[in-house]
Specification:
The complex is a heterodimer of chains A (115) and B (112). Chain A is an all-beta fold and 115 residues long. Chain A contains no helices and 11 strands. In chain A, a hairpin with a 3-residue loop joins strand 9 and strand 10 (104-105). The radius of gyration of chain A is 13 Å and the shape is globular. By secondary structure, chain B is mainly β. Chain B has no helices and 11 strands. Chain B has strands at residues 4-7, 10-13, 19-25, 38-43, 50-54, 58-59, 67-72, 75-80, 89-95, 102-103, 107-111. In chain B, strands 2, 4, 5, 6, 9, 10 and 11 form a 7-stranded mixed sheet that branches. Chain B has a 4-stranded antiparallel sheet with strand order 1-3-8-7, with no helix packed on it. The radius of gyration of chain B is 13 Å and the shape is globular. Classes of the chains: A mainly beta (115), B mainly beta (112).
């Protein structure tokens, strides 16, 4: 059974950093691209980052809203995809989901950016 | 970036009646390989999104056949043939043809 479990969320002050992890199981992690999608409280879905598999050079894509501040990476040996979030802003407050193929989704991790 | 525009944003429906959601893109979603990467998601209250339809009209496994997707180019539609109580939630279209990927604003389906 495919499972995606996000962790690392919490309360952080504006300007600080936070790293989210998404631990995958139930499939050969290294064969798949992975994405992060977020949802601000009461708002819609926003796609934010994508990383290809090693076979495709682990090349990345970002939404303009996070480009230059967020970094997506992966550790295939641990079946984990990371989202390093730097220079956080209050508008980054959201539930962050990881997803594989848009079909499998985690339960989400809440990140609150507030002083 | 490609702007995805859904309508309506709110859709009250009577149980057993059909429902239709429109999604329009600011650019053609036909990719160089000839496929059109337009997905539909359902998000029930308090849950993670669920993929309903991929590449315009392909129902994902386990999705009831009352859900159907259609369209081409820049104009797409999600239809529910007979709305059931479990269909309450927010529906999103998302394009996967162009970077960055973009979602529509969401359409809230509720029972009258």
């Amino acid at each position: 059974e495919v499972q995606l479990v996000e962790s690392g969320g919490g309360l952080v002050q504006p300007g600080r950093s936070l790293r989210l992890s998404c631990t995958a199981s139930g499939f050969t992690f290294g064969d798949y691209a992975m994405s992060w999608v977020r949802q601000a409280p009461g708002k819609g879905l926003e796609w934010i980052a994508f990383i290809r598999s090693k076979a495709y050079g682990e090349r990345t894509e970002y939404a303009a809203s996070v480009k230059g501040r967020f970094i997506i990476s992966r550790d295939d040996s641990k079946s984990i995809v990371y989202l390093q979030m730097n220079s956080l802003k209050t508008e980054d407050t959201a539930v962050y989901y990881c997803t594989r193929d848009d079909y499998y989704w985690g339960q989400g991790a809440l990140v609150t950016v507030s002083s | 970036e490609v702007v995805m525009t859904q309508s309506p944003l709110s859709l009250p429906v009577t149980l057993g009646q059909p429902a239709s959601i429109s999604c329009r893109s600011s650019q053609s979603l036909v990719y160089s390989d000839g496929d059109t990467y337009l997905n539909w998601f359902q998000q029930r209250p308090g849950q993670s999104p669920r993929l309903l339809i991929y590449r315009v009209s392909n129902r994902d496994s386990g999705v009831p056949d009352r859900f159907s997707g259609s369209g081409s180019g820049t104009d797409f539609t999600l239809k529910i043939s007979r709305v059931e109580a479990e269909d309450v939630g927010v529906y999103y279209c998302m394009q996967g043809t162009h970077w960055p990927r973009t979602f529509g604003q969401g359409t809230k389906v509720e029972i009258k």
